[in-house]
Structures are given as structure tokens and as C-alpha cells.
Design brief:
Strand order of the largest sheet of chain B: 3-2-1-4-16
Structural class of chain B: alpha/beta
Shape of chain B: globular
Largest sheet of chain B: 5 strands, parallel
Distance between the termini of chain B: 58 Å
Helix content of chain A: 25-40%
Largest interface: A-B, 44 and 43 residues
Oligomer: heterodimer
Number of strands of chain B: 16
Radius of gyration of chain A: 19 Å
Bound molecules: flavin-adenine dinucleotide, iron/sulfur cluster, FE2/S2 (inorganic) cluster
Largest sheet of chain A: 7 strands, antiparallel
Radius of gyration of chain B: 23 Å
Number of helices of chain B: 18
Distance between the termini of chain A: 10 Å
Number of domains of chain A: 2
Strand order of the largest sheet of chain A: 6-1-2-5-4-3-7
CATH architecture of the largest domain in chain A: 3-Layer(aba) Sandwich
Number of strands of chain A: 16
Order of helices and strands of chain A: EEHEEEHEEEHEHEEHEHEEEEHHH
Chain lengths: 291, 469
């Protein structure tokens, strides 16, 4: 059991948790993730490591509510326990010693680029731009933390309520054209965003990594559910990834594969919400959530 | 003595028509009367060759003799002195190739049903309560076991019985390895595995779940930072193979490991009470013909497939599955397509599987293994309409541990190189055994390797202590 030490609501549907997990904190590297199970009947879901503190033995994650498991997790707060918290999993992202780097984040991906920004921050010979996007200002997460760890913080919102008006790809394109471009681009966010980023950098042959989020089960290389076609070959995202060369990833296939359980996900959520109503009546929500 | 019974007592089975709709155990087990009667068939040989046929040298003659006298508690106590997982071995050991193949009774008649008797006494014990554990003086020396499969569990138990302080590090959230995630409930109820694991906990073995050694901690960390004097690697051979044919990434294509793990470890058959989803169509094709393929195809029937079939490029005679599993599958209505080789998976425009394109094979000249090599029959291409495809093509060791442990040598199949008698690897203090060393094999061979390694670790640590004294 893994104790939640801190919980912070970032947007109406996004929460940050600081979790007591000393062994994970001790080995965590940028680009890696954990797999958690909220309770004993729960599903195993992968979540990126947003930050870690080796001394304090804590790991920070940012989770966006999308379905049953993430909504179940959202019921937990400080002092509650997460049943399982395995990691760090995946290969750390290989970071350069010098050059110009753009970190592109969207949605929970903005949290995910924080570890990378921190690792690169202050390396001599490196400049880092963070290009992060959200629908509007209220949905932009961890702006202070990320901007403190990069050279330039370039935010964009769909409605122009903050920073540039438009998508992250627009800003990226503009920066590439106006300046000398980048040596490395790392994109973390929704699949369509990462795919669009890959298309922006492709004509310039800028090395681009995208953090894949296929459906995962064990996260240890045992099931193959997470296979992603990269350069025509099957790779397991939980062992060889999750970051892969974005110009070689078969985005269409991986996007299609993540939709495999749409109907079941809906059923799980309905079942959960139905149960949840009952629990409200009998006041046993807490125990059910912790179990 | 009563007149010798020539034939062994048959195993009572759940009726095929009933069992295909549920996960209840298929083999029901002997009654006390049946067990005693079967035990009385044993000749109490002076030289019990059955024991030589057992990779952990279970004391067959003794436990069977005690059972024959009706002393069940004593019988299981004697068995447990050597075999830590008798309820499991009694169910899944390929006895016909191990102990029973060496039983003297088998020369003229049927061999004594050793496995079934083992299962009986172990089940009896679980129902009647375990005996007290004898306390062991702690040596205050820490040993780490990596992986909680049968190899790791056996090694951990044997070391704990010698007074070592043992911690088992397991990547998943439960112990048992393949026993928990691979072998289905209807062959090996999970409660049995959980009970045996609890028994080890009572002996003082500590279990740390969610630790992927190589990522969460390295073997160097364990030995240098965390004070473990020796390490046993029992990480199995969990990496699934795919065929490399077109269409393998369509929705509806699973590795057997994924399919079975969803169901066994994560109880997807109880969705939505349990959260993990599973999608099984009406017509399921399982490619391969080993134990894993049989388990997958029989499981598919139990989770709602109307038709489930095996597709195998060789014939019935080359199948590696246990005969018993093949027969049970047939009884349950599994269809077998031998000499059939898949070449492509077809899908609709949403990427969902609609068919399996196959070619017919015929047997040609024998290959290096002596098996006649199947060759394609020209122009025999045809499409099998299916909506789910499960790849049960075998597994190889997971590379994570080797990649992250300097000085640990592997062979060309990715298996850890270890001495077959001691499990010693190329790194001092690090031992290995089970599927991680041999490639996919059997539960009892993994247990045998864990047992040998425990002895060798004990010897190694005694020597170390003598040097430092
Ligand atoms: C490497 C990786 C890192 C991730 N990092 C984060 C993160 O930092 N923060 C965050 O909020 N989310 C992250 N995700 C996505 C997160 O795992 C899913 O949102 C979560 O599994 C949804 O579960 P659910 O039951 O709430 O929703 P569901 O209703 O079950 O699913 C909603 C969608 O989530 C995806 N999904 C469902 N089950 C899984 C699964 N077992 N594995 C992977 N994806 C699944 C599917 O695309 C699905 O359509 C990451 C995914 C991966 C693979
Ligand atoms: C479906 C199926 C059916 C089978 N049926 C039979 C049968 O009927 N009879 C029979 O004798 N054999 C059978 N086998 C084979 C048998 O199960 C295996 O040979 C046996 O389990 C091997 O034991 P092991 O301890 O070496 O490894 P495993 O049982 O594979 O256990 C390894 C454990 O180590 C963990 N692990 C892996 N890497 C790490 C790491 N880096 N850090 C921490 N933990 C790690 C894994 O999660 C796993 O729990 C079957 C196999 C399968 C897949
Ligand atoms: S453990 Fe297996 S091989 Fe050994 S005696 Fe028992 S059934 Fe036979
Ligand atoms: S070889 Fe057969 S008959 Fe002889 S002791 Fe063993 S089980 Fe009994
Ligand atoms: S999640 Fe199972 S192999 Fe990657």
C-alpha cells in the first residue's frame, strides 16, 4: 500500500498526487512511468512520473480523469492509500549533453515534461523551450513549475485566454522557421497532438521523440499489449519505450489499438457511477475507495 | 494384503458439458477411500525409482506408505519436508514424464498415481488445517529472491527453513508467477497458490510486490546498498513471441500471456466487478499446441466463445501439450486444425479481426530435432473466419534483468547462464534457476532448480562466513 502524502487539484479534472514510494523515487529517471492499481479489484493503469524526490522518497504524478480508474483515484485524498504502485517502468529518455531542445506538452503531458525539463535545466550548452498547450488558461497545468526549469516558457491556449492563441504546433512551426530550429523535440500529450508535432518537424528532419500511451497491462514486457510499430518493427512501449522516434511510429495503428475497449470502458464507468450513487447513500464511500 | 489392483483409480472429472461454462476445477480429486486404495497399490520398493524421476526428490515411497495406512496428517508432513508446493505439483506436474514414468508398477501395469495422491494429501491438509511450524533460529543473514514463481518460492522456502532472512521481490502485484497469471483457475485454483504463499509468509519469508528488479532496484543495489548477501534469480521466461505475419496488431489479436493474464491475474471474467476488460469474439483461433495453447483455447470457451479452435502446423503427435490437457480440450468441444499454418490476419476497416488466412501443410523430411518438418502444400490457401486470434507460440526470458546487471552472462537464447547443479551464475553470490535459465519448461523443473540453488546458496554463505570469521 502506498500512501498519498499530498493531493492538489490542478483543474476540475486533473489532480496532482505526491505518493510515498521510496524505491520508485530512488531509481526514477525522466521519461519513465509507474503502473498503479487503486484497489484490489482494480485495473492496472500506467501514469507518467512527473517529479520525484529521492531524499524524501516521494513520487509525483498528475492524473486526468477520463474513466473508471482515474475517477476512482480522484476520490482519494491525502492520507489515503493506493493499493499498488509499481515502477519506475520503461526506458529513461536519452537526453543530450548540448543543443537546443523543445519540450512540447499537452494535457497531462505538461506534467510529464517537468522531469525532463528538470534534468536538462542548468546543463551547460543546452537551451530548453517548453511549448505547452491547453484549451484555456484554467486548464493549463504546472505552468510555474515548468517555466522555472526552462529557458523559455511558451504557452498557448485554443481561445487565446493566455499566451499564444492556437495550437502548440503553430508555435513550434513558428520557432523553427524564425530561429535556427531545434536539435531535439520531445512531445508528450494526446496522440493527435504528438502526431501533428511529428509532421511539423519531419520536413526539417529534426529528431523528435513522442511518448506513446498504448494500452498496457503488466508494464514489464510480459504481455505484448503495448506493442507499437516503430519503423516497421513491433516494439513493447513498456520496456523499449514509452518514447520512440516520432517519425517512425505508426500513429494510425497505435491510435486504433487504444480504442479496443471503448465499450467495456463505458460499461465500467457506468457500473462505477451506479455503485457510487449507492455508496453515497450508505456513507461507506471512503472504505470502498480505500479497499 | 488384498489382491493387487492392476489399474490405477481413475480421476473423477466434472462433466464436460457442465464445466465449459465455468471456471470450476475440472479434476475433482480422490476421496479418502480412493486415495488409500490407490496408495495401497504401491510396492514400497527397496529402491524407489519413482523418487529418482522427481526433480525435487519428493519422498514418494514414505508419503504413499503413510497414506496407505490412513495416516494422512503424517503423510503430508513427510511430503512437505521436501516439497513445498504439493497441491500444485499434484495438479500440474507432467507426472507421466517424471515420477510415474519411473514407477516399477508401470512396467507391467499402470504406474501408481503419485501426482493424484500428492494432490489428495495436500488438499486434505488445506481442509483440515496446517500443522504447527517448527521454529527456526535466525542466522541474521539476508538473501534476496527475484521473482515469485515456483523456482523463487521453492528457493525462498528452503532458505527460510535454514534460518535465512529471505525477501522475495516480485514485479507483479501477486506471487506465483505463471501459476497465478498463466495456468487457469479450472486447472489450478488460485486459492491454492495463495495458501502456499501464506505458508511461506508464516515461515518468515517477506514478499515485496511491485518491484521490477532491473528497474526499481538493481541486483547491485540489493547486494551493495541493501545488505543482501546472496541473490537468487527466478524471473522465468515471460516474453511472448509473435509470428511476424501481417495483421498481428489488429484489434482482437492477443498473446496468450495477455489473454490469460487478463483472466487469471486480473479476473477479467468477473468484469465489471473487476475492472480489467477483455474482448472475446464468437470464433477464436489459438495458434500453437503446447500447454499454453490448450489453456488459452479452453479458457476462450469459458469466457463465451461459441467456437474455439487450435491451429497448428504440425500433427497431433508433435504437440507438446500434456495428453490429459489435449483430451480434456477435445471433450469440451475444442476443434483441432492440424497441418495448418497461418500466414496473415485479416480485418475489417475498423481494424477488427475478421479472419485468419492459412495454408495447408504436409510432413516432409525429419529436421535436426528428428521431427518431420512441415512444408507448405502449394495452392492450399484458405481463410478461416474468426474474430479473435491468440498467439501461443512460446516465450523467452525477459531481457530487463540481464540488460541491467553487469557481469551476468546469457546465452544466445537470452537465458541466464548458470551451473545446472548449483545455479551459480557468472557473478559471485548470484544464483539462478527455472525458466530464466532453461527457457520455458515445467513447474517441477523450476522447483528443482530453486531447491538446488538454495542448497548452493547455503554452502556459499557458510564459506563466506568462514572466510570472514
Ligand atoms: C506510458 C503511459 C503514460 C501515461 N501517463 C499518464 C499521465 O501521466 N497522466 C494521465 O492522466 N494519464 C496517463 N496515461 C493514460 C492513462 O493510463 C489512462 O488515462 C488510464 O489508463 C485511463 O483509465 P480509466 O479507467 O480511467 O479510463 P478508461 O475509460 O478505462 O480508458 C480511457 C482511455 O484511456 C486509455 N486506457 C485505458 N486503459 C488503459 C491501460 N490499461 N493502459 C493504457 N491506457 C489505457 C485508452 O486510450 C482509453 O480509451 C498514460 C498512459 C501510458 C501508456
Ligand atoms: C499457460 C501456461 C501453462 C503451463 N502449464 C504447465 C503445466 O501444466 N505443467 C507444468 O509443469 N508447467 C506448465 N507451464 C510452465 C510453467 O508454468 C513454468 O515452467 C514455470 O512456471 C516456471 O517457473 P519459474 O519460477 O522459473 O518462472 P515464472 O513462473 O515465470 O515466474 C517468474 C516470476 O518472476 C517475476 N519476474 C520476472 N522478471 C522480474 C524482475 N525483473 N523482477 C521481479 N520479478 C520478476 C514474474 O512476474 C513472475 O512472477 C505452463 C506455462 C504457461 C505459460
Ligand atoms: S513433485 Fe511432481 S514429479 Fe515429483 S513426485 Fe510429485 S508429482 Fe511426481
Ligand atoms: S516405484 Fe512405484 S511402486 Fe515403487 S515405491 Fe515408487 S511409487 Fe511405489
Ligand atoms: S504492457 Fe505488457 S508487455 Fe508492455
Amino acid at each position: 500500500m502506498y500512501r498519498i502524502l499530498k493531493m492538489r487539484q490542478l483543474t476540475p479534472v486533473t489532480r496532482l498526487y505526491v505518493v510515498d514510494a521510496p524505491l520508485v523515487a530512488r531509481s526514477a529517471q525522466p521519461g519513465q512511468f509507474i503502473i498503479l492499481r487503486v484497489g484490489a479489484t482494480g485495473e492496472r493503469i500506467p501514469i507518467t512520473i512527473t517529479d520525484f524526490d529521492r531524499e524524501a522518497g516521494t513520487v509525483t504524478i498528475v492524473v486526468q480523469e477520463v474513466g473508471k480508474t482515474t475517477k476512482w483515484l480522484a476520490q482519494l485524498g491525502e492520507g489515503d492509500y493506493i493499493h499498488d504502485f509499481a515502477g519506475p517502468l520503461g526506458s529513461p529518455v536519452e537526453l543530450p549533453a548540448q543543443g537546443r531542445v523543445a519540450l512540447v506538452g499537452g494535457g497531462f503531458g505538461t506534467g510529464a515534461i517537468l522531469t525532463i525539463a528538470k534534468a536538462l535545466h542548468g546543463r551547460p550548452g543546452i537551451t530548453v523551450d517548453a511549448i505547452v498547450g491547453a484549451r484555456n488558461q484554467d486548464l493549463l497545468i504546472l505552468a510555474d513549475e515548468v517555466s522555472a526549469n526552462v529557458d523559455r516558457f511558451l504557452a498557448c491556449t485554443d481561445d487565446g485566454s493566455y499566451g499564444y492563441k492556437g495550437f502548440v504546433t503553430g508555435v513550434l512551426q513558428e520557432k523553427i522557421k524564425a530561429e535556427e530550429g531545434y536539435d531535439l523535440v520531445i512531445a508528450v500529450g494526446p496522440m493527435p497532438m504528438m502526431r501533428a508535432v511529428a509532421e511539423v518537424t519531419r520536413p526539417y528532419a529534426i529528431y523528435t521523440l513522442a511518448s506513446m500511451d498504448p494500452i498496457m497491462l503488466d508494464g514489464t514486457g510480459m504481455c505484448g499489449a503495448c506493442r507499437v510499430r516503430v519503423g516497421g518493427e513491433n516494439r513493447f512501449a513498456c520496456v523499449d519505450g514509452p518514447c520512440f522516434d516520432a517519425h517512425k511510429v505508426d500513429f494510425e495503428e497505435v491510435t486504433r489499438r487504444t480504442k479496443m475497449y471503448k465499450a467495456e470502458e463505458k460499461a465500467a464507468l457506468e457500473h462505477f457511477e451506479h455503485q457510487h450513487e449507492h455508496e453515497h447513500e450508505c456513507q461507506c464511500k471512503k472504505t470502498a475507495a480505500v479497499r | 494384503m488384498a489382491k493387487m489392483k492392476r489399474d490405477r483409480h481413475p480421476m473423477p472429472l466434472l462433466d464436460a458439458a457442465v464445466r465449459v461454462n465455468r471456471f470450476d476445477e475440472v479434476a475433482l480429486g480422490y476421496t479418502l477411500e480412493m486415495a488409500i486404495e490407490e496408495a495401497q497399490r504401491c510396492l514400497k520398493c527397496k529402491n524407489p525409482t519413482c523418487e529418482i524421476g522427481c526433480p525435487v526428490q519428493s519422498p514418494v515411497k514414505d508419503f504413499v506408505a503413510l497414506l496407505a495406512e490412513g495416516k494422512v496428517a503424517e503423510s503430508v508432513k513427510r511430503l512437505r519436508e521436501v516439497n513445498r508446493l504439493p497441491a500444485i505439483c499434484g495438479r500440474v506436474c507432467p507426472q507421466e514424464e517424471q515420477c510415474e514414468s519411473k514407477c516399477v508398477m508401470g512396467v507391467k501395469f499402470e504406474p501408481v498415481a503419485i501426482g493424484r495422491l500428492e494432490r489428495f494429501v495436500a488438499d486434505w491438509e488445506r481442509q483440515h488445517g496446517f500443522g504447527e511450524l517448527e521454529p527456526v533460529a535466525s542466522r541474521g543473514v539476508k538473501v534476496a529472491v527475484v521473482g515469485a514463481g515456483p523456482a523463487g518460492l521453492t528457493c525462498a522456502g528452503d532458505l527460510a527453513a535454514l534460518g535465512y532472512q529471505v525477501t522475495v521481490f516480485e514485479a507483479l502485484h501477486a506471487a506465483g508467477g505463471v501459476l497465478m497469471y498463466g495456468i487457469p483457475e479450472f486447472r489450478l485454483p488460485k486459492e491454492i497458490v495463495e495458501t502456499d504463499v501464506r505458508r511461506l509468509e508464516e515461515m518468515g519469508v517477506e514478499f515485496r510486490y511491485n518491484v521490477l528488479v532491473g528497474r526499481t532496484v538493481t541486483i547491485d543495489d540489493l547486494m551493495e546498498k541493501d545488505g543482501y548477501s546472496a541473490v537468487f534469480i527466478g524471473t522465468g521466461a515471460g516474453l511472448p513471441k509473435f509470428m511476424g505475419i501481417p495483421g498481428e496488431n489488429y484489434s482482437g489479436v492477443y498473446s496468450a500471456n495477455e489473454f490469460l493474464t487478463r483472466i487469471n491475474l486480473l479476473r477479467a471474467y468477473k468484469f465489471p466487478e473487476y475492472d480489467t476488460p477483455l474482448k472475446v469474439g464468437k470464433r477464436v483461433a489459438v495458434i500453437g499446441a503446447g500447454n499454453t495453447a490448450m489453456d488459452s483455447v479452453r479458457t476462450a470457451l469459458r469466457v463465451g466463445a461459441e467456437q474455439a479452435m487450435i491451429v497448428y502446423r504440425r500433427t497431433e503427435h508433435e504437440m507438446t501439450a500434456r495428453r490429459e490437457e489435449f483430451e480434456h480440450a477435445e471433450e469440451e468441444g475444442v476443434q483441432f486444425n492440424f497441418l495448418t499454418n497461418p500466414v496473415e490476419i485479416l480485418a475489417n476497416e475498423d481494424g477488427w479481426v475478421t479472419g485468419l488466412k492459412c495454408v495447408k501443410m504436409e510432413l516432409g523430411e525429419p529436421d535436426e530435432s528428428g521431427r518431420r518438418k512441415p512444408v507448405t502444400v502449394k495452392g492450399s490457401e484458405f481463410v478461416m473466419p474468426v474474430d479473435t486470434v491468440i498467439m501461443a507460440l512460446g516465450t523467452t526470458p525477459n531481457p530487463i534483468l540481464l540488460r541491467t546487471t553487469p557481469g551476468l552472462q546469457s546465452n544466445k537464447w537470452g537465458c541466464v547462464v548458470a551451473d545446472p547443479e548449483t545455479g551459480a551464475t557468472t557473478r559471485p553470490g548470484v544464483f539462478a534457476g527455472g525458466d530464466a535459465v532453461t527457457g520455458a519448461a515445467t513447474v517441477i523443473l523450476a522447483m528443482g532448480a530453486g531447491q538446488k540453488a538454495a542448497r548452493a546458496i547455503h554452502e556459499y554463505l557458510e564459506k563466506q562466513a568462514a572466510v570472514h570469521a
